Amino acid sequence: MMKKIVLLMLCVAKLFASELIVENGKTLVLVEDSNEIRKLKEKSQIWIPHPQEKDKSILVLPISYYAKERKLHLDNGKIVRIYKGNYKSEQISVDSSKAKPNPKNQARIKQERDEANKIYANYTKGIYWDKPFIYPMESKITSEFGNARLFNQEIKSYHSGTDFRAAIGTPIYASNSGKVVIAKDRFLAGQSVVIDHGEGIFSMYYHCSEIKVKVGDRVERGELIALSGNSGRVSGPHLHFGILVRGVQIDPLDFIAKINTIF
C-alpha cells in the first residue's frame, strides 16, 4: 500500500513539474530546436528565429492581464498554467480635463488608439535585435505594471507599463534596436515614442518633454531617443515604459528578464 502511495505522489509531482506556470500580465519565453518546430504539423503559437543561434527557435507568449486562470497546451506538448497575480492598487490625481475628456478629446483619443492599433497589427517580419534588452534608464520605479488605478476617484483601469522616476529632461534610451513607428504628441500618452523590434514586439516611452527621433528612423540599443517630461495624463514628471507583444500589453521588466535568458 505504501509503495502505491509513493508511486502516486511521484506521478503527481511529475505532472506538476511538467507544467509551466505563468502569471497574468507576464510573458513565457521558450527555446526549442528549429528542426523540431518545423516537424510540427500544426502550430497555434508563433515561433521566431533565435537572434544568435540559427538552429534554435523561440516562443514569446504574452499572457494578457485579463486572462483567466486556465491551462494552455503548447505546440511542443508542454502545458502552461495561468494563475491570477497579486497586483496592487493605487489612487492618482490628474488634471480634470485629462480624467474626463470632452467629446472633442474623446474623438482624438479614439483616433490615436485606432492609429496605434493599426501600426501594431502591421509589424515587421523578422527581428532587428541580436543583443539583450535593457532598461530605458536607471532610476527608481514609482509604479509597477498591473496596479489597479483610480484616477481622481472615478476612472478605473490598470497600469499597462512601468513608471520610472525622472525629472524633466532626463535622457531616455532605446531598450533595443528597432524602427521608430510612433513619434508624436498624444492626448493621454503625451510626447510618445514607440519602437518596432520586429515580430510583433514593441517598446513604448510616454510622457516625454522632447522627442529626439522621427518615424522611420532605425535606432540602436542604448541610443538616445527622448527626454523625460510630464506631458499627457500624468500626476508629475516620470517615464512610462511599456512592452507590447502581438497586441498584448505585458509587464516590461518581466519581459526583459525572460527574453534575456536566451542569450
From TrEMBL:
Location of the M23ase beta-sheet core domain: 158-252
One Gene Ontology MF term: metalloendopeptidase activity
Catalytic class of the enzyme: hydrolase
One Pfam family recorded for the sequence: Peptidase_M23
InterPro entries: Cell_wall_metabolism_enzyme, Dup_hybrid_motif, M23ase_b-sheet_dom
E.C. number: 3.4.24.-
Matches recorded under SUPFAM superfamilies: Duplicated hybrid motif
Keywords: Hydrolase, Signal
Residues making up the signal peptide according to the UniProt record: 1-17
Matches recorded under PANTHER family: CYTOPLASMIC MEMBRANE PROTEIN (PTHR21666:SF287), PEPTIDASE-RELATED (PTHR21666)
Name assigned to this protein: Peptidase, M23 family
Organism: Helicobacter pullorum MIT 98-5489
